[in-house]
């Protein structure tokens, strides 16, 4: 699971941490630390029960923001965990949580957005999500097997962003998504999106960590009132989209040691990031680290709308480590 490892004990004796939240332009405030449910095998190695247990452990530790996606194959497991937590009295209701899910590229077409969200809600067994994101700024022709999670690069096509966003707005108007936003959008793509939106995006979820600092994008989102959310803050080591620089960095290891922290902390420790800060020298050393992406060229292809990583990322941090190809269809039954 990203970003944290699971505790080995079924029950947690830790006192849940009070979680600061970020105000977004739509819906309720977003807890500043979330528990991601993407894994290297997209849920297959862990199985539905394994993901459910991981989410329950996270709830015990104090997490209240859970991030999933139709392509992660974990929506149903998140729904199972939430239902079990309510029955056990761990939380009063689903409303105590912040749930994010995402629109997969095969459904990023006019006419498919609302049905895709309705399917996600059915998987989650929820009436609404707190945040619904366009997963990537690209589309793909729907697969022959409905629900298959596979990237066929020959089938990548330019997204009808205006048509897709109009349906995202409809999802919000119907109350199915309390907030709507995007993921993996650059400044240029956000600028185009904002040129026609009636409801601007509340958030942009992107790769952010010490080796992918996204300073330009962070400043742009701040100026436009878009909450920037970080995924893979530890670089996602072990995942197909990993940027291993974070976990392998001697500089970060040294800074962590000086602060009595670890570069990669366990589930409970990940919540213990408040009440201390980096020194100016720490920030200087981090700002000098070379930038690169883990999520790099997944959707780059000679026949697609983006021929190079430079085009896909509009010149924003175009160095990358991962060349992972999703080559096999995954079970869509969650």
TrEMBL record:
Substrate binds at residue 135. This is NADP-dependent oxidoreductase domain-containing protein. InterPro entries: AKR, Aldo/ket_reductase_CS, NAD(P)_OxRdtase_dom_sf, NADP_OxRdtase_dom. The active site is at residue 72. Keywords: NADP. Pfam families: Aldo_ket_red. It comes from Urochloa decumbens. The keyword rRNA-binding does not apply. The keyword NADP applies. PROSITE patterns: ALDOKETO_REDUCTASE_1, ALDOKETO_REDUCTASE_2. Belongs to the aldo/keto reductase family. Residues 32-236 form the NADP-dependent oxidoreductase domain. The record marks 102 as: Lowers pKa of active site Tyr.
